[in-house]
Request: fold
Amino acid sequence: DLHSQEGNESTKYQRMRKPFIILAAILCMTNASENQPRVVFAIDVSGSMDGKNIENAKNSVIDYLVTSVGSNDISAELGIVAYNQNATLVHEMTEINENTVETMMDSVEQLFAEGGTCIAAGIEAAVNWPDLIGERYGSSIFIFGDGESNSCEDEIQTSIFEVSKYAKVYLVDLGFGVTNITEEIVRETGGLIINGKDQTFEEISKLIQQRDLVVSEVPSPSSWYLKKSNPNSIMDEVCHLNRKTSAFYTSNILMGNNDLTHVCFKIPSVTLDTGEHLKGGWQHATQGKRECVDECCLFTPEPLNIRTKQYPDWYRSEDCSENTRPEKVNNGPIIMKRQEDDGTCASVCVKENDEYRRKVGRFIEIDCGESNCCYLSQVMDYEVLSFLTGGGYSGYEFGSGFGYNPYDSLYGSYSSCLG
Reply:
Protein backbone atom coordinates (compact mmCIF):
# COMPACT_ATOMS: atom_id res chain seq x y z
CA ASP A 1 0.00 0.00 0.00
CA LEU A 2 1.82 3.09 -1.29
CA HIS A 3 -0.34 5.44 0.72
CA SER A 4 -0.35 3.82 4.16
CA GLN A 5 2.52 4.57 6.57
CA GLU A 6 4.83 7.44 5.61
CA GLY A 7 7.78 5.71 7.17
CA ASN A 8 7.11 2.43 5.32
CA GLU A 9 7.10 3.87 1.80
CA SER A 10 9.67 2.18 -0.42
CA THR A 11 12.80 4.13 -1.26
CA LYS A 12 11.54 4.50 -4.84
CA TYR A 13 8.64 6.65 -3.64
CA GLN A 14 10.42 8.76 -1.05
CA ARG A 15 10.21 11.85 -3.21
CA MET A 16 10.23 15.58 -2.56
CA ARG A 17 6.83 16.57 -1.18
CA LYS A 18 6.23 20.27 -1.91
CA PRO A 19 5.50 20.07 -5.67
CA PHE A 20 2.87 17.34 -5.40
CA ILE A 21 1.11 19.19 -2.53
CA ILE A 22 0.90 22.22 -4.79
CA LEU A 23 -0.58 20.14 -7.59
CA ALA A 24 -3.04 18.47 -5.25
CA ALA A 25 -4.43 21.87 -4.31
CA ILE A 26 -4.54 23.08 -7.91
CA LEU A 27 -6.33 20.01 -9.20
CA CYS A 28 -8.90 19.86 -6.39
CA MET A 29 -12.22 19.04 -8.06
CA THR A 30 -15.14 16.63 -7.98
CA ASN A 31 -14.78 13.14 -9.40
CA ALA A 32 -14.53 13.02 -13.17
CA SER A 33 -17.67 12.53 -15.22
CA GLU A 34 -18.56 12.41 -18.88
CA ASN A 35 -18.72 16.21 -19.12
CA GLN A 36 -16.00 17.04 -16.61
CA PRO A 37 -12.97 19.05 -17.78
CA ARG A 38 -9.79 17.01 -18.01
CA VAL A 39 -6.18 17.37 -16.90
CA VAL A 40 -3.06 16.53 -18.92
CA PHE A 41 0.57 16.74 -17.79
CA ALA A 42 3.07 17.63 -20.55
CA ILE A 43 6.68 16.75 -19.64
CA ASP A 44 9.60 18.33 -21.51
CA VAL A 45 12.12 15.59 -22.42
CA SER A 46 14.35 17.64 -24.73
CA GLY A 47 18.13 17.68 -24.44
CA SER A 48 18.12 20.90 -22.39
CA MET A 49 16.31 18.99 -19.62
CA ASP A 50 19.12 16.46 -19.18
CA GLY A 51 20.34 15.87 -15.63
CA LYS A 52 18.55 17.15 -12.53
CA ASN A 53 15.92 19.02 -14.56
CA ILE A 54 14.33 15.88 -16.00
CA GLU A 55 14.63 14.11 -12.64
CA ASN A 56 12.85 16.98 -10.85
CA ALA A 57 10.06 16.94 -13.42
CA LYS A 58 9.57 13.15 -13.19
CA ASN A 59 9.72 13.19 -9.39
CA SER A 60 7.03 15.86 -9.20
CA VAL A 61 4.65 13.90 -11.45
CA ILE A 62 5.28 10.65 -9.56
CA ASP A 63 4.71 12.35 -6.21
CA TYR A 64 1.37 13.61 -7.50
CA LEU A 65 0.39 10.10 -8.60
CA VAL A 66 1.30 8.60 -5.22
CA THR A 67 -0.73 11.24 -3.39
CA SER A 68 -3.73 10.82 -5.69
CA VAL A 69 -4.33 7.17 -4.80
CA GLY A 70 -7.45 6.98 -2.65
CA SER A 71 -7.91 10.76 -2.50
CA ASN A 72 -11.38 12.20 -2.99
CA ASP A 73 -10.04 15.74 -3.35
CA ILE A 74 -7.85 15.36 -6.44
CA SER A 75 -8.71 14.84 -10.10
CA ALA A 76 -9.65 11.20 -10.62
CA GLU A 77 -8.32 11.09 -14.20
CA LEU A 78 -5.01 12.13 -15.71
CA GLY A 79 -3.33 11.89 -19.13
CA ILE A 80 0.42 12.30 -19.65
CA VAL A 81 2.40 13.27 -22.75
CA ALA A 82 6.11 13.93 -23.26
CA TYR A 83 7.62 16.20 -25.87
CA ASN A 84 10.93 17.22 -27.43
CA GLN A 85 10.77 18.13 -31.11
CA ASN A 86 7.86 15.67 -31.31
CA ALA A 87 5.21 14.49 -28.86
CA THR A 88 4.84 11.02 -27.36
CA LEU A 89 1.92 9.54 -25.46
CA VAL A 90 3.24 8.46 -22.06
CA HIS A 91 -0.11 7.33 -20.67
CA GLU A 92 -3.66 7.64 -21.95
CA MET A 93 -6.37 9.34 -19.87
CA THR A 94 -6.70 7.01 -16.90
CA GLU A 95 -8.36 6.97 -13.51
CA ILE A 96 -5.67 7.06 -10.83
CA ASN A 97 -6.16 4.18 -8.39
CA GLU A 98 -4.20 1.35 -6.77
CA ASN A 99 -4.53 -0.78 -9.91
CA THR A 100 -3.15 1.83 -12.33
CA VAL A 101 -0.69 3.96 -10.38
CA GLU A 102 2.27 1.56 -10.68
CA THR A 103 1.98 1.40 -14.47
CA MET A 104 1.66 5.17 -14.74
CA MET A 105 4.71 5.78 -12.52
CA ASP A 106 6.78 3.23 -14.45
CA SER A 107 5.89 5.00 -17.71
CA VAL A 108 7.13 8.30 -16.28
CA GLU A 109 10.29 6.73 -14.80
CA GLN A 110 11.41 5.53 -18.25
CA LEU A 111 11.53 9.04 -19.73
CA PHE A 112 14.94 10.45 -20.67
CA ALA A 113 16.13 13.72 -22.21
CA GLU A 114 17.27 14.10 -25.83
CA GLY A 115 16.53 16.12 -28.97
CA GLY A 116 15.23 19.60 -29.70
CA THR A 117 12.28 21.37 -28.09
CA CYS A 118 8.87 22.06 -29.60
CA ILE A 119 6.53 23.13 -26.82
CA ALA A 120 3.73 23.44 -29.40
CA ALA A 121 3.96 19.69 -30.05
CA GLY A 122 3.26 18.94 -26.39
CA ILE A 123 0.24 21.17 -25.92
CA GLU A 124 -1.29 20.34 -29.32
CA ALA A 125 -1.00 16.63 -28.51
CA ALA A 126 -2.77 17.20 -25.20
CA VAL A 127 -5.69 18.86 -26.99
CA ASN A 128 -5.94 16.98 -30.28
CA TRP A 129 -4.94 13.39 -29.60
CA PRO A 130 -7.86 10.99 -29.05
CA ASP A 131 -9.04 10.37 -25.49
CA LEU A 132 -7.01 13.17 -23.88
CA ILE A 133 -8.65 16.62 -23.58
CA GLY A 134 -10.66 16.27 -26.78
CA GLU A 135 -13.36 18.96 -26.70
CA ARG A 136 -13.69 19.19 -22.94
CA TYR A 137 -13.95 22.94 -22.42
CA GLY A 138 -12.36 24.30 -19.25
CA SER A 139 -9.62 21.67 -19.15
CA SER A 140 -6.05 22.22 -17.94
CA ILE A 141 -2.56 21.44 -19.25
CA PHE A 142 0.39 21.53 -16.85
CA ILE A 143 3.84 21.94 -18.40
CA PHE A 144 6.82 20.48 -16.57
CA GLY A 145 9.84 21.91 -18.36
CA ASP A 146 12.32 24.71 -18.87
CA GLY A 147 10.05 26.67 -21.23
CA GLU A 148 12.48 26.61 -24.15
CA SER A 149 11.26 26.05 -27.73
CA ASN A 150 13.84 25.97 -30.51
CA SER A 151 12.46 23.81 -33.31
CA CYS A 152 8.94 25.03 -34.16
CA GLU A 153 8.74 28.81 -33.76
CA ASP A 154 6.26 29.12 -36.65
CA GLU A 155 3.83 26.74 -34.95
CA ILE A 156 3.63 28.55 -31.62
CA GLN A 157 0.89 31.03 -32.57
CA THR A 158 -1.30 28.34 -34.15
CA SER A 159 -0.76 26.22 -31.06
CA ILE A 160 -1.83 29.04 -28.72
CA PHE A 161 -4.94 29.67 -30.83
CA GLU A 162 -5.99 26.01 -30.79
CA VAL A 163 -5.30 25.22 -27.15
CA SER A 164 -6.96 28.38 -25.80
CA LYS A 165 -10.32 27.17 -27.16
CA TYR A 166 -10.42 24.32 -24.68
CA ALA A 167 -7.79 24.64 -21.97
CA LYS A 168 -5.70 26.86 -19.75
CA VAL A 169 -1.96 26.20 -19.76
CA TYR A 170 -0.04 26.26 -16.46
CA LEU A 171 3.73 26.21 -16.07
CA VAL A 172 4.96 24.37 -12.99
CA ASP A 173 8.26 26.20 -12.46
CA LEU A 174 10.53 23.86 -10.53
CA GLY A 175 13.48 26.22 -10.81
CA PHE A 176 14.04 26.23 -14.57
CA GLY A 177 12.89 29.82 -15.05
CA VAL A 178 10.25 31.34 -17.33
CA THR A 179 10.89 32.16 -21.00
CA ASN A 180 9.03 34.69 -23.13
CA ILE A 181 7.41 31.89 -25.11
CA THR A 182 6.08 30.09 -22.05
CA GLU A 183 4.88 33.34 -20.52
CA GLU A 184 2.93 34.18 -23.69
CA ILE A 185 1.27 30.74 -23.80
CA VAL A 186 0.25 30.97 -20.15
CA ARG A 187 -1.03 34.55 -20.51
CA GLU A 188 -2.98 33.97 -23.73
CA THR A 189 -4.74 30.88 -22.39
CA GLY A 190 -5.57 32.41 -19.00
CA GLY A 191 -3.38 30.07 -16.93
CA LEU A 192 -0.80 30.69 -14.20
CA ILE A 193 2.92 30.32 -13.63
CA ILE A 194 3.17 28.21 -10.50
CA ASN A 195 6.28 28.57 -8.37
CA GLY A 196 6.87 25.02 -7.25
CA LYS A 197 10.32 25.80 -5.90
CA ASP A 198 9.82 28.45 -3.21
CA GLN A 199 6.15 28.98 -2.39
CA THR A 200 4.38 27.31 0.49
CA PHE A 201 1.14 25.35 0.25
CA GLU A 202 -0.80 28.24 1.82
CA GLU A 203 0.56 30.76 -0.70
CA ILE A 204 -0.28 28.54 -3.64
CA SER A 205 -3.77 27.94 -2.28
CA LYS A 206 -4.47 31.69 -2.27
CA LEU A 207 -3.39 31.91 -5.91
CA ILE A 208 -5.73 29.17 -7.04
CA GLN A 209 -8.82 30.17 -5.07
CA GLN A 210 -9.87 32.29 -8.04
CA ARG A 211 -9.61 29.33 -10.42
CA ASP A 212 -11.93 26.33 -10.57
CA LEU A 213 -12.36 23.65 -13.20
CA VAL A 214 -16.11 24.19 -12.93
CA VAL A 215 -17.32 27.76 -12.36
CA SER A 216 -20.64 29.36 -11.50
CA GLU A 217 -20.17 32.71 -13.30
CA VAL A 218 -19.91 33.46 -16.99
CA PRO A 219 -16.49 35.14 -17.45
CA SER A 220 -16.19 38.68 -18.75
CA PRO A 221 -13.85 39.26 -21.71
CA SER A 222 -10.30 39.93 -20.53
CA SER A 223 -9.47 41.81 -23.75
CA TRP A 224 -11.36 43.06 -26.79
CA TYR A 225 -11.25 45.36 -29.80
CA LEU A 226 -13.49 46.42 -32.69
CA LYS A 227 -12.46 45.10 -36.08
CA LYS A 228 -12.99 48.05 -38.39
CA SER A 229 -11.02 46.99 -41.47
CA ASN A 230 -12.87 44.57 -43.75
CA PRO A 231 -15.26 43.42 -41.01
CA ASN A 232 -17.00 40.98 -43.36
CA SER A 233 -13.91 38.75 -43.34
CA ILE A 234 -13.77 38.49 -39.56
CA MET A 235 -12.85 35.05 -38.19
CA ASP A 236 -11.64 33.72 -34.83
CA GLU A 237 -8.14 33.08 -36.19
CA VAL A 238 -7.95 36.59 -37.67
CA CYS A 239 -8.86 38.00 -34.25
CA HIS A 240 -6.04 35.98 -32.70
CA LEU A 241 -3.42 37.00 -35.27
CA ASN A 242 -4.40 40.71 -35.24
CA ARG A 243 -4.35 41.02 -31.44
CA LYS A 244 -0.77 42.37 -31.39
CA THR A 245 -1.35 45.01 -34.06
CA SER A 246 -4.74 46.29 -32.85
CA ALA A 247 -5.39 48.73 -30.03
CA PHE A 248 -7.47 46.69 -27.62
CA TYR A 249 -9.26 47.33 -24.35
CA THR A 250 -9.34 45.44 -21.06
CA SER A 251 -12.75 46.68 -19.90
CA ASN A 252 -16.25 45.46 -20.55
CA ILE A 253 -17.14 45.80 -24.24
CA LEU A 254 -18.32 49.43 -24.49
CA MET A 255 -19.11 51.19 -27.77
CA GLY A 256 -21.21 53.97 -29.21
CA ASN A 257 -24.72 53.05 -30.30
CA ASN A 258 -23.76 53.74 -33.92
CA ASP A 259 -20.57 51.64 -33.90
CA LEU A 260 -20.62 48.50 -36.03
CA THR A 261 -20.73 45.36 -33.94
CA HIS A 262 -17.72 43.45 -35.25
CA VAL A 263 -15.95 42.54 -32.04
CA CYS A 264 -12.87 40.45 -31.31
CA PHE A 265 -12.82 39.32 -27.68
CA LYS A 266 -10.90 36.88 -25.47
CA ILE A 267 -12.20 34.75 -22.60
CA PRO A 268 -10.85 31.67 -20.79
CA SER A 269 -12.42 28.33 -21.63
CA VAL A 270 -14.76 27.24 -18.83
CA THR A 271 -17.41 24.72 -17.93
CA LEU A 272 -20.29 26.19 -15.94
CA ASP A 273 -21.91 24.45 -13.00
CA THR A 274 -25.07 24.21 -15.13
CA GLY A 275 -23.21 21.91 -17.54
CA GLU A 276 -22.87 24.60 -20.21
CA HIS A 277 -19.49 24.85 -21.94
CA LEU A 278 -17.81 28.01 -23.23
CA LYS A 279 -15.04 28.01 -25.82
CA GLY A 280 -12.03 30.11 -24.85
CA GLY A 281 -9.42 32.19 -26.65
CA TRP A 282 -9.82 34.98 -29.19
CA GLN A 283 -13.21 34.88 -30.90
CA HIS A 284 -15.34 37.15 -33.05
CA ALA A 285 -18.95 38.20 -32.59
CA THR A 286 -21.43 40.20 -34.65
CA GLN A 287 -24.48 39.15 -32.64
CA GLY A 288 -25.18 39.70 -28.98
CA LYS A 289 -27.03 41.74 -26.40
CA ARG A 290 -26.73 45.55 -26.61
CA GLU A 291 -27.73 47.47 -23.48
CA CYS A 292 -27.63 51.17 -24.37
CA VAL A 293 -27.64 54.26 -22.14
CA ASP A 294 -26.69 57.84 -23.08
CA GLU A 295 -25.67 56.87 -26.64
CA CYS A 296 -23.34 54.21 -25.22
CA CYS A 297 -23.84 50.46 -25.32
CA LEU A 298 -22.58 47.56 -23.23
CA PHE A 299 -22.23 44.69 -25.68
CA THR A 300 -22.37 41.07 -24.52
CA PRO A 301 -21.37 38.61 -27.28
CA GLU A 302 -23.93 35.91 -28.00
CA PRO A 303 -21.82 33.05 -26.50
CA LEU A 304 -21.66 34.91 -23.16
CA ASN A 305 -25.29 36.01 -23.07
CA ILE A 306 -26.36 33.05 -20.95
CA ARG A 307 -27.67 34.73 -17.83
CA THR A 308 -29.48 38.04 -17.49
CA LYS A 309 -28.12 40.63 -15.05
CA GLN A 310 -30.42 42.75 -12.92
CA TYR A 311 -29.76 46.49 -12.94
CA PRO A 312 -31.17 49.26 -10.69
CA ASP A 313 -33.06 52.31 -11.94
CA TRP A 314 -30.76 55.34 -12.15
CA TYR A 315 -30.16 58.69 -13.82
CA ARG A 316 -27.27 61.12 -13.99
CA SER A 317 -27.63 64.12 -11.68
CA GLU A 318 -26.20 65.81 -8.59
CA ASP A 319 -29.74 66.45 -7.29
CA CYS A 320 -31.81 63.38 -6.45
CA SER A 321 -34.93 65.19 -5.22
CA GLU A 322 -38.24 64.08 -6.73
CA ASN A 323 -38.97 67.39 -8.50
CA THR A 324 -35.76 67.13 -10.57
CA ARG A 325 -36.24 63.51 -11.62
CA PRO A 326 -36.60 62.94 -15.38
CA GLU A 327 -39.74 61.29 -16.74
CA LYS A 328 -37.71 58.36 -18.00
CA VAL A 329 -34.91 56.88 -15.92
CA ASN A 330 -32.34 54.31 -17.00
CA ASN A 331 -32.58 50.64 -16.18
CA GLY A 332 -29.26 49.21 -17.26
CA PRO A 333 -25.54 49.32 -16.58
CA ILE A 334 -24.16 52.60 -15.25
CA ILE A 335 -22.42 53.66 -18.44
CA MET A 336 -22.23 57.08 -20.04
CA LYS A 337 -20.44 59.15 -22.63
CA ARG A 338 -17.60 60.99 -20.93
CA GLN A 339 -17.55 64.70 -21.76
CA GLU A 340 -14.54 67.02 -21.85
CA ASP A 341 -15.72 68.96 -18.76
CA ASP A 342 -16.50 65.84 -16.68
CA GLY A 343 -13.16 65.72 -14.92
CA THR A 344 -12.38 62.49 -13.12
CA CYS A 345 -15.81 61.57 -11.74
CA ALA A 346 -19.57 61.99 -11.96
CA SER A 347 -22.72 61.84 -9.84
CA VAL A 348 -25.72 59.55 -10.38
CA CYS A 349 -28.98 58.92 -8.54
CA VAL A 350 -29.59 55.23 -7.93
CA LYS A 351 -32.84 53.71 -6.69
CA GLU A 352 -32.52 51.80 -3.42
CA ASN A 353 -35.50 50.69 -1.32
CA ASP A 354 -37.96 52.85 -3.29
CA GLU A 355 -35.89 56.03 -2.98
CA TYR A 356 -33.12 57.58 -5.06
CA ARG A 357 -29.77 58.11 -3.36
CA ARG A 358 -26.89 60.15 -4.72
CA LYS A 359 -23.81 58.13 -5.64
CA VAL A 360 -20.46 59.22 -6.97
CA GLY A 361 -18.07 57.27 -9.12
CA ARG A 362 -14.84 57.70 -11.03
CA PHE A 363 -13.81 57.53 -14.66
CA ILE A 364 -10.92 55.10 -14.96
CA GLU A 365 -9.20 54.57 -18.31
CA ILE A 366 -9.38 50.77 -18.17
CA ASP A 367 -13.18 51.02 -17.84
CA CYS A 368 -13.60 53.10 -21.00
CA GLY A 369 -14.07 51.87 -24.56
CA GLU A 370 -14.95 53.20 -27.98
CA SER A 371 -16.64 56.59 -28.58
CA ASN A 372 -15.69 57.90 -25.09
CA CYS A 373 -18.10 55.41 -23.51
CA CYS A 374 -17.18 54.55 -19.92
CA TYR A 375 -18.37 52.50 -17.01
CA LEU A 376 -18.67 54.61 -13.87
CA SER A 377 -16.26 52.81 -11.55
CA GLN A 378 -15.92 52.56 -7.77
CA VAL A 379 -19.41 53.97 -7.17
CA MET A 380 -19.89 55.04 -3.54
CA ASP A 381 -22.69 56.61 -1.51
CA TYR A 382 -22.34 60.41 -1.52
CA GLU A 383 -23.33 60.94 2.12
CA VAL A 384 -21.00 58.24 3.39
CA LEU A 385 -18.12 59.56 1.29
CA SER A 386 -18.76 63.12 2.46
CA PHE A 387 -18.76 61.97 6.08
CA LEU A 388 -15.52 60.05 5.71
CA THR A 389 -13.66 62.71 3.77
CA GLY A 390 -15.20 65.93 5.06
CA GLY A 391 -14.27 65.85 8.75
CA GLY A 392 -16.88 63.41 10.06
CA TYR A 393 -14.04 61.01 10.84
CA SER A 394 -10.76 61.90 12.50
CA GLY A 395 -7.94 59.80 13.84
CA TYR A 396 -8.17 61.48 17.27
CA GLU A 397 -11.91 61.03 17.55
CA PHE A 398 -11.66 57.29 17.16
CA GLY A 399 -8.62 56.99 19.38
CA SER A 400 -6.03 56.07 16.77
CA GLY A 401 -3.76 58.91 17.91
CA PHE A 402 -2.33 59.49 14.44
CA GLY A 403 -3.76 63.02 14.16
CA TYR A 404 -4.66 62.79 10.46
CA ASN A 405 -7.61 61.67 8.40
CA PRO A 406 -6.80 58.28 6.83
CA TYR A 407 -9.31 59.02 4.06
CA ASP A 408 -7.43 62.08 2.73
CA SER A 409 -6.10 60.17 -0.29
CA LEU A 410 -9.59 58.89 -1.03
CA TYR A 411 -10.95 62.41 -0.76
CA GLY A 412 -8.46 63.58 -3.37
CA SER A 413 -9.79 61.02 -5.85
CA TYR A 414 -13.41 62.16 -5.39
CA SER A 415 -12.97 65.88 -4.66
CA SER A 416 -14.51 67.01 -7.96
CA CYS A 417 -17.66 65.01 -7.16
CA LEU A 418 -18.28 66.33 -3.67
CA GLY A 419 -19.33 69.87 -4.45
Notes: Residues 52-68 form the longest helix (17 residues).
